[in-house]
């Protein structure tokens, strides 16, 4: 998979921009707050329909404007495509593939696989469960349209159930209507659990192998899915938890409470791992993700590295860079000295300054 060109109009701090990318490493450098990460955000939005920093559509539109446009020319399985996305301040986003509008955002998923890696991902091992669930969801949604559909439906039902719990506290007669949402929640939730289990099972040997290379086989990393509830007892546990849910006015049982446990030499990384161990585990997970996507999609994903090299020591930088030889990579950093550029004909360098991008010669 490749990104050939990105066109932006009134997106973040860009009025109008067209930038072409090479098939190798594309280095975007410049001072902070100049717009480097905004370019990666636009790419991520074009691939996943979501900005990787969690921003809302209206926050992506240039100040003082009502709309923004992202045009992305890509190659997927040797076939060129164009993805157009219109962001509107007070309306849902509009998406077209090859100038044909799509009805549901989920139809875009899988056309372009991207893997983003930023400093927040390095902190994933020590952060709360929501970041690890987000990793599972982003990975599965790009590779599995059925999972994406189930997740969307699950979240909708969860909102409806929580709203009903708030209403029941003031009107107990509504309690008998809860089963309608419970049935749907369990149906979609079981499918989410099943696919998360499969992903962890497939990732585990790859993560262990990558971590062994990073640590010189001195440590062993394992990962284990920690579901909030099992498929078999989901329905019963949800029913038993009703009084607590009613008191809390929210649903306390289901995959929205899942986690993933990582251990190095049988010790929980989040609780007992050093910062170095946590970062090595996060890097191993990203490298495993690249390999799994390559295997499942039949071609390599596009890698987005957002100011992450400065957070890694020299050995981990070199390990990461050794994995991207046959991968289109778009990197942001504050200076070229942070990146060991291979000086290949397939590489490109761009200076980003105040919402402008200038191509530079490889030194």
Structure characterization notes:
The protein is α/β, with parallel strands linked by helices and 363 residues long. It has 2 domains: 1-113 and 301-363, 3-Layer(aba) Sandwich (Rossmann fold); 126-297, RecF/RecN/SMC, N-terminal domain (Glutathione S-transferase Yfyf (Class Pi), Chain A, domain 2). The chain is built from 11 helices and 15 strands. A 6-stranded antiparallel beta sheet has the order 2-1-4-5-6-7. It has a 6-stranded mixed beta sheet with strand order 8-12-13-3-14-15, with helices on both faces. A 3-stranded antiparallel beta sheet has the order 9-10-11. It is globular.
Characteristic key phrases:
24% strand, Rossmann fold, Glutathione S-transferase Yfyf (Class Pi), Chain A, domain 2, 6-stranded mixed sheet, 363 residues, 6-stranded antiparallel sheet, alpha/beta
Write a concise synopsis of the structure shown.
This protein has 363 residues and is α/β, with parallel strands linked by helices. The chain has 2 domains: 1-113 and 301-363, P-loop containing nucleotide triphosphate hydrolases (Rossmann fold); 126-297, Up-down Bundle (Glutathione S-transferase Yfyf (Class Pi), Chain A, domain 2), CATH 1.20.1050. It has helices at 36-48, 57-60, 119-122, 129-143, 145-168, 178-214, 234-240, 242-248, 269-272, 275-297, 314-322; strands spanning 2-11, 14-20, 25-29, 67-76, 79-88, 94-97, 100-101, 114-117, 221-226, 259-264, 267-268, 302-306, 329-333, 348-353, 356-360.
Oligomer: single chain
Could you give the count of β-strands? 15
Which class of the largest domain in CATH terms? Alpha Beta
Report the CATH superfamily of the largest domain: P-loop containing nucleotide triphosphate hydrolases
Number of helices, where a helix is a run of at least 4 consecutive DSSP H or I residues? 11
The ordered string of helix (H) and strand (E) elements is EEEHHEEEEEHHHHEHHEEHHEHEEE
CATH architecture of the largest domain: 3-Layer(aba) Sandwich
Low-confidence runs of at least 5 consecutive residues:
none
Name the beta content range: 15-25%
**Envelope shape:** globular
Placed side by side, the strands forming the largest sheet appear as 2-1-4-5-6-7
Mean pLDDT: 91
Please give the domain count: 2
Question: Structural class of the helices, strands and pairings?
Answer: alpha/beta
| Biggest beta-sheet profile | 6 strands, antiparallel
